[in-house]
Design goal:
9 helices, alpha/beta, about 35% helix, about 325 residues, Aminopeptidase
Length: about 325
């Protein structure tokens, strides 16, 4: 079992100052910095967190870390605290929810949810080279890190006309329990949800694809088309394995689609060919492409800003859902 501390991992990254990515983050405005991305990712994937299994005692440190992302950036809790306690799981488990009110008198009554799940599977039964901790760097520390960077941007700039809920979901690996709980809770409160946007497994770039990201449920809404329009390039696309494996229903976007019947989709770069360590101990920090993750964040932030601030609800479900 590898016992690499969070600090040592981060120092190693800073010392090397190298990445595997062929993409140039220098060509994109630096909303997020590689060192910040590496810092969050390194903490989430350290062995001390024991694979971030929902309800484990080690998760308390992770919960505190994610709460601090909100606290340090002046983001308020949406509920009485940042912790949204799951009612559908047997052990104490929490979504972590932050709130930034919109700055438009009318549009602030509409909400956008941006999220990612921070839990993983804990330990595996069959160790690999003596390592039985599934650190879940790609799945989904990468997505969690992206959300943390998006939080920092909107917290610092407060450009959002609509209100934002930032959610770090728990118990995704137990059957989307965190998102199911929250979607039902917010539906009961009659939240006016415009769309839900989810990051999932963005740790390494796709190979031989003509876009940066693919989106799940590609044909269910015009979200991909609108994102590409806002980007001025083909940033988002479709890959057949998304349909083959039913990925639209496999991540935390789906409960919001189910409850609210609004565009709720996930972006990812895991294409089943570019990463061989799914749910394995080798899904480690050192397998992640920091430049790529940073690029995904820096490409999506200005697009999200345009989506959030559109004067009307331009992103809509297609007639054939």
């Amino acid at each position: 079992m590898k016992k690499i501390s969070y600090l040592l991992v981060l120092l190693s990254f800073v010392a090397c100052k190298t990445t595997k990515s062929s993409s140039s983050v220098d060509q994109v405005f630096q909303y997020a910095k590689p060192t910040d991305v590496a810092s969050t990712l390194a903490f989430l994937t350290t062995d001390e967190n024991m694979g971030r299994e929902a309800g484990s005692k080690e998760m308390q440190k992770v919960v505190t870390y994610l709460e601090d992302v909100f606290k340090k950036n002046g983001v308020k809790p949406y509920f009485t605290s940042y912790k949204d306690t799951l009612t559908n799981f047997e052990r104490p488990t929490y979504n972590i929810v932050g709130f930034i009110e919109g700055n438009d008198l009318k549009l602030k009554n509409q909400f956008v949810i941006i999220g990612a799940h921070y839990d993983h599977i804990g330990k595996v039964k069959n160790a690999v080279n003596g390592d039985d901790i599934a650190n879940g760097a790609n799945d989904n520390a990468s997505g969690t890190t992206a959300v943390a960077e998006v939080v920092k941007y909107f917290a610092a700039n407060r450009t959002n006309k609509r209100s934002l809920l930032f959610v770090f979901f728990s118990a995704e690996e137990k059957g989307l329990l965190g998102s199911k709980h929250l979607a039902a809770k917010l539906k009961k409160q009659e939240l006016d949800l415009y769309f839900m946007f989810n990051y999932e497994m963005i740790g390494v770039p796709m190979v031989n694809k003509d876009m940066l990201l693919y989106i799940t449920g590609f044909g269910k809404s015009n979200m991909a088309a609108k994102m590409n329009e806002y980007a001025g390039e083909k940033l988002i696309g479709y890959i057949p394995v998304e349909t083959k494996y039913g990925l639209f229903r496999a991540s935390d976007n789906y409960p919001f689609y189910y409850e609210f019947e609004v565009p709720s989709q996930t972006v990812s770069t895991f294409d089943f060919e570019n990463f061989e360590y799914y749910h394995q101990p080798d899904d480690e920090f050192d397998k992640m492409d920091i430049a790529h993750i940073t690029n995904v964040v820096n490409k999506t932030i200005p697009i999200l800003e345009k989506m959030i601030n559109a004067s009307t609800k331009e992103i809509k479900l297609n007639e054939t859902k």
